[in-house]
């Protein structure tokens, strides 16, 4: 089976089951995934998501936002100047 045939049979429900199997390391019947199966499942999920989902909904998406030059994130806190500990 080539990638196009595989993607043709996948639907959102199957992809959700594959993602769960990847996350917990087991098939729905409790049998552990082999490393090869996990790799294949991940490739199938990523390929399906690229073909069927917008970038913001895909696995692994990180919203980097947009910032002007010299603008910091809201959570950015300036670090205090480093002061070494002196033992007496």
From TrEMBL:
The superkingdom of the source organism is: Bacteria
Q: A Pfam family name for this chain?
A: DUF1315
What name is this protein filed under?
A: DUF1315 family protein
Q: Which species is this UniProt entry from?
A: Acinetobacter bouvetii DSM 14964 = CIP 107468
